Amino acid sequence: MSENPQEPVNKEPGDFERAAASKPLGLTAEFLLFLKEHKAWWMVPILLSLVLIGAAVWMSTSTLAPFIYPLF
Predict the structure, then answer these.
(1) Distance CA 56, CA 63 (A)
(2) Segment 29-35 long-range contacts (CB within 8 Å, at least 24 positions apart)
(3) Which one in 2, 30, 38, 48 has a CA-CA gap of 20 to 30 Å to 70?
(4) pLDDT in tens, 12-58
(5) How many other CB atoms are there within 10 angstroms of residue 32's CB atom?
C-alpha cells in the first residue's frame, strides 16, 4: 500500500465563497449594477418615461382622476 500524504487544505475563502456568504442585493441595486456593467445607461430615460406613463394611467383610474385630467 502506498501512502497518500494529505495536502494542506486552504482555509482562506475564495471569491465564490465570499460572494455566497455576502448579503444578497436588492432588485434595484442589482438592476443598477447590471446597467453599470453592461453600459446600458441609455435604458434609464426609456424606463423612467414608461414608469411615469404607468403612474399617470394608474392615477387616472383612482380618486385622483379629477386632478389629473387638467394635465392632459
Answers:
(1) 12
(2) none
(3) 48
(4) 778 888 878 888 889 999 999 999 999 999 999 999 999 999 988 88
(5) 13
Rg (C-alpha) for the chain, rounded Å, is 26
Is pLDDT above 60 for 2? Answer: no
Per-residue H/E/C for the chain? CCCCCCCCCCCCCCHHHHHHHCCCCCHHHHHHHHHHHCCCCCHHHHHHHHHHHHHHHHHHCCCCHHHHHHHC
CA atoms of 16 and 37, how far apart (whole Å): 19
Residue of higher predicted confidence among 22 and 7: 22
CA distance 6 to 25: 38
